[in-house]
Amino acid sequence: GSIDGTGGLQSSPQKHENFRKGLLGDEKDDGGGGESDSGITLEQILALKERFDSADQDGGGSLDMQEFMDAFGSIINKDGSMTQEQIARLFMQIDANSDGGIDWNEFSTYMLMESQSSGTVKTHQVGNFFLPDPLGKKADPDWFHRESADCMLIDSVGGQYLTASKDGTLRLWTASSMQLAKTIVTGQSWILAMCWLTKSARLVLSTADRRIRFYDIHTWEQVVEVQLQSPAFCVCSWTFGEAELLAMGNEKGEVTVVDISKGLKEVRPTGKEKKQKKRPDYWNDSVTKVVHDGFIHQMEMVEDLGGLVTCGADSAIVIFEYPLQSDPNHKDRIIPRRILKHARGHQKGVKCFQWVVSHKLIVSGGLERQVVIWNPYTCKPVVSLDGHQSGIAKVQVNAEFEQVISLATDGVVKVWDLRNNECVQSLSEGENLREKGARNSSIVYDAARHRLITCGLCPHKWTINPQILNSSTDVTHRSPVVAALYNKNFGHVVTVAEDSEVTIWKPTTGNEVFNFIDQDRDAETFLSAAAFDDNGRRLLTGDHHGRVRVWNFSNGACIKTLVKPTDLYRRQEITGLTMYQYEETRFFAASSWDRKISVWVDDSEDSGTVDPFLQIGGNDDDILSIAFTYPKILATGASDGNINMFDIESGARRLSMTCTKPPSTGNTPRQTGSSPAELSNMQYVEKVIFLEHRNKTVVSVGGDGHIRFWEGVWMETAPQSLSSSMLMSRLAA
Asked: How far is CA 419 from the centre of its chain?
């Protein structure tokens, strides 16, 4: 190894190779043929073992730093270029279990790992752009919707997909594992449409019984329900200045725009309204205008076009400004900015559209089995893409690869290249079918994870061919990053991805130092958390199956696997990891979705699979973060806004602190215009830590956008008093 400018140990392939060859006694020229050796032979292993045993002067079975230097120093530092600090860090690299000694298992593992590539990634042959999910046939039938799911959204903050069905249920799916996380029963009516209210942290659902329902996205509880004059077949939202607006379209061609930030009126139907079965207007600030002749199928606010875009059963795509401009000749109608309707365009109803930002075009689909591409500034079609055998139900845009993805009513998905207007792939539900007898009814493209999600009764995942992705994008990982850690001992940044890829970086240059993956990982396993041990020598990773693996992150060797009992409701996913020492024993601790903390003893003799010796309960809601402070306190941050303190010896909960309402002065962007009642559901604790040199101070980060500082004495008994102060995260950063 060599030392970079920051004092960190930088991996040097040539020096590691020379070190290995020196130990094996085969430092000789390979003739420049470029042919690497095939690995360590049995004779070399026996010779190494003899040399190792002879170096173990005290007969303890392991080498301390001095014994290691006496035996191998002449090879490690034969040119005198390495400092004592560098040699010490090499010693730490080989000392996988951080016990201050190198045993034969650690030494031989290090040599074997250095003698071969640290890991390989399986790749597919370049062919299809999207590849089917290999787990498609392994989904639990109990997870399926009873009827097709026509609506789907991405929860980018929570890492979930949302599907809404005609069976009246809303289902949340974990993006990493595609497993069902939660089912919300909204009633017996069809769910027609849904959208996010990002400012107020709400999900809006429209149902066939003429109701609009609002759900808190942190607790998933219904907070408001409003009855409408007519069912809303499409909804969308946007912000206009300080206002948060919701638009709804119905079967009469009417668009209703509501200022959500102004709330609802307390009204009761009059006798005349009851007799006419007419619903009163519950909104404090709303306006309704006629835009189409018949059903409105979709609407979106497109800032680049300066207005709201709608499509409907009258074969038109209409662009109009907000605030709505009334037609002086027809007060119930608006003055459109542009109307996309042409003889070469749609002759029947338009079901869907998308705005292509890169090309400044609108793509739309309808009943004619064609995808039409429009120039919105000339209001004329540019080209029509033919190939579907049924009408178009949904369209999506893959902007990064300049593609349009269309779903037909027969369940067939086609991928179109906008650069040459050709179909590059057709996806049939038969290639990736989790449920029998169901067609794809909805699609969404997840740009962050480079995947297409199709859904019939449950979602399917289609990933971009790795060879295409790696050759076309400047990304550091092929899947989402679950942790970015800094190791102060080695001066490296370590990133961990869902697919188990671990990459070590040199922070001063941004160069990759080392990379490995879990060779034993199957396609069903996705990482969800990562942390270093207390000495910074081992990497801990947790997955959604409830397993914690302990790694020597310097060479990619797995030391042991920590497992936890299977939860009755299969809430296995690891959400937080930490390590601590109590008296003379060291422990690993992990929090998970079963609301428990699992604790394992760190025994240097352990290998293979290790069971926990203790599980700590006492959390009333999902645990999102875990931290330790001396002498023996574990703290958890939960989604109910509580920070709980546990005694690690007895497992008892010593203290519970609840995040209070933010001060009246100062608001984060998320809070602007929100009422105290709305804010009460935004206190979930995303992260909790103890300050390293002031363990009486707890720092927590809340879902309301605030950083809180708590002062107290976290000992065996609850402190007599504690106080907290808050700082807005945008200022604290």
From this structure: 31
